[in-house]
Structures are given as structure tokens and as C-alpha cells.
């Protein structure tokens, strides 16, 4: 890896020391919890009746040693500090992350593994182990200068926090859902009904909300003092940032602009997303799962929603924030953002491939000597395959799914509700399909009609 970065400084190392000290405190409390709840091992390496918390105590002590090493570092020793990620690991991660095909494939695979192994990682101990691994990974990654420049930007710090919050609430949902699924299978009452307690708005709810408000206000004050505001130089039409990015909550839409025309990525798809969310109560015919956490009763709805939210939305935000760099190129998370990096791309339209590559002819185009009908005919002739594919995708696939994989759903929902649902699913699937077509075939537009400013 070519180095464009200064070495580690004492301030960075000591900052990581405070992170490991915080992690030590968290695991110290977890060790006490493990001692009280996890019991003992009957035999381990010849020793009898060993508390399971012993392993956590060893790990907690190791964290204290690591924190002490970081906090007591000398300025002269910072240059040769060895507790950092090796170059071979960073190069391997960069080669994976910087390739959008591998990135998206791993995102989908991780989503599938998350759902498939939900009964394992929702348990307290595996979940705590995953949290520790995530924090240690971020801490070790902060020893890389380029990673710090990306993650440490004031604009990007909240996104890192959002990822941890997203992981926590995903765990919370699946842990509650798995427990309720087990209760229903055993004929027991739901957790929500068994533990339901009625409380008054005043003082119970208002008191809880007041405590949360005070804590959140204190957090925002500390945040505002400790973290510099992301204020840059005044805007100029002749000097734009490279890369020029939207706010984090629009990065998913900005990423879609890579694969779709602005009218589609900026208008049509967002309206379909909002309309689809509003239509959920009207197209949902499943009476189960209302008012309580569950997965088995609503597998289809949960999987569709989470796939659209995690890989296709949060994944696109992560990609747009940490991987899209200058000139909108893809960079590894440990890679220097070189403004001179240029990737040669030769994206072509489907009509170019049909007429030029396959038929060996020039593209039909409307000319000045054609009347209006002849010009329209030339455009439709040029784009006939793309138009046929789009119409078939939206008009032929829904009935085909209705008589095959969605047959029972079609019978229960009826024609109108089923067609709304089927088209919403197809529009959601259109994004990963278009991404795959771009990555593997350099396909820019399926239908390209610049004469009408209409491209798909």
C-alpha cells in the first residue's frame, strides 16, 4: 500500500486507550453478570467446577493491560507502536470493499446469514461477543490514518453511531421475535401479554421521558463541545468539493443516481418508496403479528422490509459515505483518496449493444426529413428490445408470479392488492438488478430516449 499518511501520534494512541478503558469497564460489568447467571463448567483442562465468568475475567484483564499500554505511551515510542492492523489485512479488506460486486454480494450474504442464524446471535453472550468484536475492529482501524480521515469527519461520526444503533435495534427485534416464536410453539402466552402492566401517563411515562430528555440533552452538549462543527469554506460555483455528497440521509438516493436517470432515482423511486410504505396497512392481509414481536408469523413481510432497509438502504449509505471518494470512484476503507485516480468505464446502452454489437448496424435515429410519426417509429424501433423487457418485467411477471410462487397470496389478496404488492416488490428488485447489469455488463440504460429525456 502506498503511504500518503503520517505515522501514529501519541494523541491518537491515548485516545484509543480511553476507548479500550471504556470497553474494560463494560466487560467488567459483564463479568459480574456472567458470574451471577452463567454458572460453572463441570470440567476444563482437568480443573473442576470452573466459573464460566473466568474467561470473561481473563479477557477483561487483557483489555485493562491494552488500555494501560495505550495510555502510558511515550511520544518517542508512538512511531513504532505495534498494536495496529497489519498491511496485509488492510490490503485484503480494500480489495474486497472497493469492488462493488463483492461489496453487494457480501451485504446480501450477511443479510441471509443474519436471518438464518437469528437464534444464535440473539442470545446475550454471542451478541455481546459481536459487539466487542465491532468495537475492537473500529479501534484497531483507527490506527490507520486514511481510515481516521474518513470516519473521524464530523459529518461521518453520526453515521458510525447510526450503524451501532441500527445493529442494536435489529438485535432487539430478532431477540424479542425469537422468544415469542418459541412461546407460541410451546403454547405459552406472548411475552407482551405476560409482562403487560398498565401505568399512568403521569407520573410514570412523563417521568421516564423527562429522564431521557435530560440524558439526551447532556449527550448533545458534550457532543457539541468535543466535536468540531462540520463548517467548511463559503460555497463557490467555481470550486466544488470533490467528492460532492448529499447529507447522509440522501446518500442512498445519490447512489441510485449512478444507475438511474435523475427523474427515476430522484422522483419516481422515492415516491414509490413513500407510497409503498403508506400502502402497507391496506395490502397486508395477515392478521398475525399485530401488537407483538414475531418472525415466523410474518416471514415474508419481515424479510422484504429488512432486505430493502439493510442491504439496499443502509448498505448504500455506508457505500456512499465511506467508500465513494473523489470523482465518485470506489475506494477501500484504508485506501488513500487520491483525486487523480481515474477508472476507465465504457458504459453502453442496450440499444447500442443490440444494433451495433449484435446486428452490426447503425442506430435508427429520427432525422430532419422525417415527419413526427416516422421519428417516433425510428425511436421505438431503436429501443424495441428495452421497451419489451421493461413492459414484460412490469406486466408479465406479476401474473406469472400469481400462478406460481405467489399463488396462495394472490387468492387471499385479490387482484388489486396483489398487483400493488407485486409491482412494489418488482420496483424494489429493479435497483439491485440495475446495479448488477452495470457492474457485470457495463449497461447504462435499458431504454435510452434522450430525445424525450426518458431513460431507464
UniProtKB/TrEMBL annotation:
Instruction: Give the protein's recorded name.
Output: Cytochrome b/b6 C-terminal region profile domain-containing protein
Keyword Transferase in annotation: no
**What organism, scientifically named, is this protein from?**
Caulifigura coniformis
Q: Does the keyword Metal-binding apply?
A: no
Entry keyword set: Membrane, Transmembrane, Transmembrane helix
InterPro entries reported in the protein's UniProt record: Cyt_b/b6_C_sf, Cytb/b6-like_sf
- Gene Ontology CC: membrane
* Segments traversing the membrane: 12-32, 53-73, 102-121, 128-145, 157-178, 199-226, 263-283, 304-323, 384-406, 418-441
UniProt-recorded Gene Ontology molecular function terms: electron transfer activity; oxidoreductase activity
Tell me where the signal peptide lies: none
Amino acid at each position: 500500500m502506498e503511504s500518503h499518511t503520517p505515522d501514529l501520534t501519541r494523541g491518537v494512541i491515548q485516545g484509543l486507550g480511553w476507548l479500550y478503558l471504556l470497553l474494560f469497564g463494560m466487560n467488567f460489568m459483564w463479568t459480574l453478570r456472567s458470574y451471577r447467571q452463567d454458572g460453572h463448567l463441570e470440567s476444563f483442562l482437568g480443573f473442576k467446577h470452573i466459573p464460566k465468568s473466568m474467561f470473561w475475567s481473563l479477557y477483561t484483564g487483557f483489555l485493562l493491560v491494552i488500555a494501560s499500554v495505550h495510555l502510558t505511551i511515550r511520544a518517542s515510542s508512538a512511531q513504532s507502536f505495534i498494536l495496529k492492523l497489519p498491511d496485509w489485512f488492510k490490503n485484503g479488506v480494500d480489495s474486497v470493499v472497493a469492488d462493488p460486486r463483492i461489496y453487494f454480494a457480501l451485504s446480501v450474504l450477511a443479510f441471509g446469514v443474519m436471518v438464518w442464524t437469528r437464534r444464535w446471535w440473539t442470545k446475550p453472550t454471542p451478541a455481546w461477543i459481536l459487539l466487542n468484536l465491532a468495537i475492537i475492529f473500529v479501534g484497531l482501524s483507527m490506527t490507520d490514518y486514511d481510515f481516521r480521515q474518513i470516519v473521524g469527519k464530523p459529518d461521518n461520526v453520526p453515521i458510525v453511531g447510526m450503524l451501532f444503533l441500527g445493529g442494536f435495534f435489529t438485535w432487539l427485534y430478532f431477540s424479542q421475535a425469537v422468544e415469542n416464536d418459541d412461546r407460541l410453539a410451546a403454547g405459552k402466552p406472548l411475552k407482551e401479554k405476560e409482562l403487560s402492566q398498565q401505568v399512568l401517563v403521569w407520573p410514570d411515562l412523563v417521568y421516564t421521558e423527562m429522564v431521557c430528555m435530560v440524558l439526551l440533552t447532556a449527550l448533545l452538549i458534550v457532543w457539541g463541545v468535543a466535536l468540531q462543527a462540520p463548517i467548511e469554506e463559503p460555497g463557490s460555483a467555481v470550486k466544488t468539493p470533490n467528492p460532492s455528497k448529499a447529507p447522509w440521509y440522501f446518500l442512498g438516493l445519490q447512489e441510485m443516481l449512478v444507475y438511474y436517470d435523475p427523474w427515476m432515482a430522484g422522483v419516481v423511486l422515492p415516491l414509490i418508496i413513500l407510497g409503498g410504505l403508506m400502502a402497507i396497512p391496506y395490502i397486508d392481509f395477515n392478521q398475525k403479528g399485530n401488537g407483538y414481536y414475531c418472525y415466523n408469523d410474518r416471514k415474508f413481510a419481515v424479510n422484504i422490509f429488512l432486505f430493502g432497509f439493510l442491504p439496499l438502504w443502509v448498505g448504500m449509505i455506508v457505500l456512499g459515505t465511506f467508500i465513494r471518494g473523489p470523482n465518485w470512484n470506489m475506494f477501500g476503507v484504508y485506501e488513500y483518496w487520491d483525486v487523480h485516480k481515474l477508472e476507465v468505464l465504457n458504459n453502453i446502452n442496450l440499444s447500442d449493444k443490440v444494433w451495433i454489437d449484435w446486428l452490426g448496424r447503425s442506430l435508427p435515429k429520427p432525422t430532419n426529413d422525417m415527419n413526427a410519426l416516422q421519428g417516433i417509429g425510428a425511436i421505438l424501433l431503436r429501443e424495441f428490445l428495452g421497451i419489451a423487457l421493461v413492459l414484460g418485467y412490469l406486466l408479465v411477471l406479476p401474473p406469472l408470479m400469481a400462478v406460481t410462487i405467489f399463488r396462495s397470496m394472490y387468492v387471499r389478496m385479490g387482484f388489486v392488492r396483489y398487483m400493488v404488492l407485486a409491482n412494489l416488490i418488482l420496483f424494489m428488485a429493479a435497483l439491485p438488478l440495475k446495479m448488477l447489469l452495470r457492474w457485470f455488463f457495463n449497461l447504462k440504460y435499458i431504454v435510452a430516449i434522450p430525445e424525450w429525456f426518458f431513460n431507464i
